[in-house]
Automatic annotation (TrEMBL):
Pfam families: Nitroreductase
Listed SUPFAM superfamilies: FMN-dependent nitroreductase-like
Superkingdom in the source lineage: Bacteria
UniProt key word Nucleotidyltransferase: no
Protein name: Nitroreductase domain-containing protein
Gene3D superfamilies: NADH Oxidase (3.40.109.10)
Residue ranges annotated for the Nitroreductase domain, each copy included: 8-165
Length: 241
């Protein structure tokens, strides 16, 4: 197996970091450069990355996200933002209409671009013997974070990435059976037994932070009343009618 494949197949999330470790500027720049070279639809690059090293700003983020103390304890925290403000400037320069709120298409493209940049950053960090963990819960406080970071209209914070030197080794988490995820030529029906098998696999894996079976966790999640926080933020930022 070549080094790249080995790196990808052994990726893990790390949440315990050496708080005294200072990430060299050169390595941070390598990670950011790798993120910026991610694939992008039409080379639009519809995202921005906010680099947070300031302790006070990160303390505020932890106050809003107490379940993610690694935001402060890691060497750096990156926030990936769907950014359609840049192309609004382009439309203004050409004096053309900018009707992105008419459809979810532009937001979908921007989210995808940001996610691809995020994954490049994750793998770049791993290649430097660093650890990372993606933090999606920042969306719960997207309004506050947008104000804190002075995000302009047509932008929305999507997810964060803590990067640092791990102090606790983690095992590679099992994934769903291939037959439940990979389909050749067309979508292949499968039985619920595959999900039950995965429940058993994850119970044997025994991750301490998981308090429910995999299936129960998502049954509960999608049964709960929908939160409108993200919808409200998108409307506030001019991305949704």
């Amino acid at each position: 197996m070549n080094e790249t494949l080995e790196l990808l197949k052994n990726r893990r999330s790390f949440r315990d970091f050496d708080e005294e470790y200072v990430l060299p500027k050169e390595e941070l720049q390598e990670i950011l450069d790798a993120a910026r070279q991610a694939p992008s639809w039409m080379n639009g690059q519809f995202y921005s990355i906010i680099v947070l090293q300031d302790k006070e700003i990160r303390k505020q983020l932890v106050e809003w996200n107490p379940g993610n103390p690694q935001i402060l304890k890691s060497s750096v925290f990156l926030i990936f933002v769907a950014d359609l403000y840049r192309t609004k400037m382009v439309s203004a320069a050409y004096e053309s209409a900018y009707q992105i709120e008419e459809s979810v298409e532009s937001l979908l493209v921007a989210t995808t671009d940001a996610a691809l940049a995020l994954e490049n950053a994750v793998i770049a960090a791993e290649s430097l013997d660093l650890g990372s963990v993606v933090v999606g819960s920042i969306r719960k406080h997207g309004k506050e974070i947008s104000r804190l970071l002075n995000l302009p209209e047509m932008t929305v914070p999507l997810f964060g990435l803590s990067i640092g030197k791990p102090i606790v080794e983690m095992n590679v988490k099992p994934r769903l059976p291939q037959a439940a995820v990979i389909h050749f030529e067309h979508y292949q029906p499968y039985t619920y037994e595959l999900i039950e098998q995965y429940d058993q696999t994850m119970e044997l894996f025994g991750e301490a932070r998981e308090t429910k079976r995999w299936s129960q966790k998502f049954s509960d999640y999608f049964a709960a009343d929908a939160t409108m926080v993200t919808d409200q933020l998108l409307k506030m930022q001019g991305l949704l009618k």
